[in-house]
C-alpha cells in the first residue's frame, strides 16, 4: 500500500525499534501517533521528529490496559482522522531465569506487555482500520525468538510470548484474507536498543520497576556488539507494508537452528501414528 498521507500508530515508539519504525513511517510521509508508556520520553522523541517537519503526535499508552489502548486510538483519530497502519511493537525482555524459577509476577509482566499488548491492539486497531474500507496494514513485532528457543539464554517466557505473537499474526492474516488490510510479523534478530533495561517500566502491581544488573549487562553487551541500528528495522517495516510481506526478518538470524527445528517437526510428521488432512 501507499504510505504517504496515511495515519499510523506505533506502540513502544519512545525507543529502539518503535522509534525506528515511527521515524521511517514519518519519512515515508505518514502521520504517526507515537505511543509509549514513557510519557516524557515519547514527547521528547516526537519533538525531535516533528522538528524535521514530520507529522507526529506523542501519545501515552499502556498496552497492557485495554482502556489505555482505546484512549490512545481515540487521541490519534482525533488528531489525524482515519487509522490505516498499526504497529503493535511494545515489548519487554525476560531472560536469564530458568522456567522453574520464573515468578508469577514475571510471567504476568512479560505476557501482559508482549502478548496482551498485541491482543488489545488487534481488538481495537484492526476494527478502526477496517471500518473505513481503505487499504491498511498491521505490523506485529515478534522476534527470531518466535521461531526457535535459543539454548543457554533461559529466555523461555520471552520466546513463548513471541511464538504467541507469530501465531496471532498468522490467524489475523487468515481472517483478513479478502480485505485490503495486510499483516506483517516482524522478526528481528539482535537490534541495538534499550530493551535490556525494559523491566525498569514494570508496573507496581507486578512488583514495580526492576533492575537485574547482571542479566541486563549480559543482554546489553550482546545487543551492543551484534545489534544493528533500529532505523534499518523501520525501513524493513516500510518495505514490508509497501509490498504486503508477511514475514519480515531483519538482522542476524540463526538459520541452521530454525531449519533444524523444522526438520525435527517434519520427521515427527512422518511417523506411522499420523495421517494427513
Ligand atoms: P526498547 O526497550 O528500546 O523499546 C521498547 C519500548 O516499549 C520502550 O520505549 C518502552 O517504554 C515501551 N513499553 C514497554 N512497556 C510498555 C507498555 N506496557 N505500554 C507501552 N509501551 C511500553 O526495546 P526494543 O528492542 O525496541 O523492543 C521493541 C520490540 O522489539 C519488542 O517487542 C521486543 O521484544 C522486540 N524485539 C527486540 C529485539 C532486539 O534485539 N532489541 C529483537 C527482536 C524483537
Automatic annotation (TrEMBL):
Oxidoreductase recorded as keyword: yes
Keywords: Oxidoreductase
SUPFAM superfamilies membership: NAD(P)-binding Rossmann-fold domains
Sequence similarity: Belongs to the short-chain dehydrogenases/reductases (SDR) family.
Signal peptide: none
UniProt keyword Oxidoreductase present: yes
Gene Ontology molecular function, alphabetical: oxidoreductase activity
InterPro entries: NAD(P)-bd_dom_sf (IPR036291), SDR_fam (IPR002347)
Protein name as it appears in the record: Short-chain dehydrogenase
Protein's organism: Reyranella soli
